[in-house]
């Protein structure tokens, strides 16, 4: 289960913390966006691999 959970997208909290502390907020927001877009593909691949390796 930890293997699958590790493939989930970044939390939006990282962007909020960056905005609150005024520390690379645009970069954090872009990272969250990219990880959300790629998340569907990544999670699908990791679930497939976990079935092959651990199933």
Number of strands: 0
Low-confidence stretches: none
Tell me the radius of gyration.
Answer: 14 Å
Shape call: elongated
State the helix count: 3
In whole angstroms, the N-to-C terminal distance is 12 Å
The portion of residues assigned to helices is over 70%
Beta fraction of the residues?
under 5%
Structural class by SSE content: mainly alpha
Order of helices and strands: HHH
Task: Report on the biggest sheet.
Answer: none
Mean pLDDT: 87
Brief description of this entry?
By secondary structure, the chain is mainly α. It is built from three helices and no strands.
Care to describe what's here?
This protein is mainly alpha-helical and 55 residues long. Helix content is 78%, strand content 0%. The protein contains three helices and no strands. The protein has helices spanning 2-5, 12-20, 25-54. Helix 2 runs antiparallel to helix 3 (25-54). The protein is elongated and about 45 Å long. The two termini are 12 Å apart. The mean pLDDT is 87.
Please name the defining characteristics of this protein.
55 residues, mainly alpha, 3 helices, elongated
């Amino acid at each position: 289960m930890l293997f699958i959970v590790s493939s989930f997208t970044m939390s939006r909290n990282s962007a909020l913390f960056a905005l609150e502390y005024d520390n690379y907020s645009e970069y954090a927001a872009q990272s969250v966006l990219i990880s959300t877009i790629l998340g569907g593909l990544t999670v699908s691949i990791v679930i497939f691999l976990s079935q092959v390796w651990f199933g």
